[in-house]
């Protein structure tokens, strides 16, 4: 019986009771280890090996890759199922060549150690410029210089690839047109390269000879380009001026070329006629230049009146003479007779030109002589007439009887009015043609008129109107 305090309730104490009967308090009968598994090893797994995993091998729990614990046999365990990070799904450290491309670290991983297959041994994607020659590349120099021997496209540099190779090419326009600014040999087109550049050159003969058909500027040689074209041009002063030393068609300026050479010529009429307004020395014609111009009758090289030629180059008198030679009637016509007169005048050094006082069907003194306004004078100074009108009025001032040398004319082989001083005329005293002219003074088989050179009346021109043309007689000659 329990004693109870009379001032407090009694405290009840409960004690656990092991009902298995092994006295360890774990509830598993008969093992006495207190772990409740009944195997008596105290690890609670009931297999009796003491490792707690229930398999009886004594090695503990098996490793699990991906559980975040690096177990024996694992190099790593990052607790995830990513195969492309630093720890693979096999719990191995990721490395180049394992066939797994590590994100952010490798560009590729083909599981081998070969270069040139697209993925290098460093697990980098192979590309042009990485210094490794890959399939499809002609070269790879590992740089990004496009102008060396290997382009940025990993192709060998060649002319025509549109990349100018340093030290090798002058240009590269990517085409094979040889006539543009860059030749098909990748040289800058220049004059002298033997290629005619379109739109820039007219010719290109591949030399620097400036005197041939193609100049050093690659233009066709033309007059006025400043280059002397050998064998074609006499000169080329680079202009088309006709008043300098080289005229427009590239010939040297000369008197008579029709161009007035400035400061050298006074005139140039382009001919070799010396008696027009411009002399053959290209000096403007003027009285006193010793050249008888078309508007002059005489020019003694001075302007001194009284010497027979006035200061306006007109005769102050006209010389006349009887030839010192005698001839039959076949004189050779007007031209032949005039030639005889001029030959005799030249022999006597008489000035001017002369015509014979004869007539033919082609002309007479009245139609072909200068009808003088000044006196007619013989070589001895005696005047036979004041002018043309006085000469042809039927009488002379004095007898016409002096030769070109101021001698006495030779007697003819016929006489008239008791005188054998006859002269061939075939002309009336007024200068018109007579009836008989020895067949225009070309034959000895006819008759012709003769005059008497010792008289002053009209017989001076016609004394015998029908003398045989075999007669020998002199001629009257008149200065024109």
From TrEMBL:
<keyword id="KW-1015">Disulfide bond</keyword>
<feature type="region of interest" description="Disordered">
    <location>
        <begin position="1"/>
        <end position="72"/>
    </location>
</feature>
<dbReference type="InterPro" id="IPR016186">
    <property type="entry name" value="C-type_lectin-like/link_sf"/>
</dbReference>
<keyword id="KW-0732">Signal</keyword>
<dbReference type="InterPro" id="IPR011936">
    <property type="entry name" value="Myxo_disulph_rpt"/>
</dbReference>
<dbReference type="Pfam" id="PF13948">
    <property type="entry name" value="DUF4215"/>
</dbReference>
<feature type="compositionally biased region" description="Acidic residues">
    <location>
        <begin position="21"/>
        <end position="60"/>
    </location>
</feature>
<protein>
    <recommendedName>
        <fullName>Multiple EGF-like-domain protein 3</fullName>
    </recommendedName>
</protein>
<keyword id="KW-0677">Repeat</keyword>
<dbReference type="InterPro" id="IPR016187">
    <property type="entry name" value="CTDL_fold"/>
</dbReference>
<feature type="compositionally biased region" description="Low complexity">
    <location>
        <begin position="1"/>
        <end position="20"/>
    </location>
</feature>
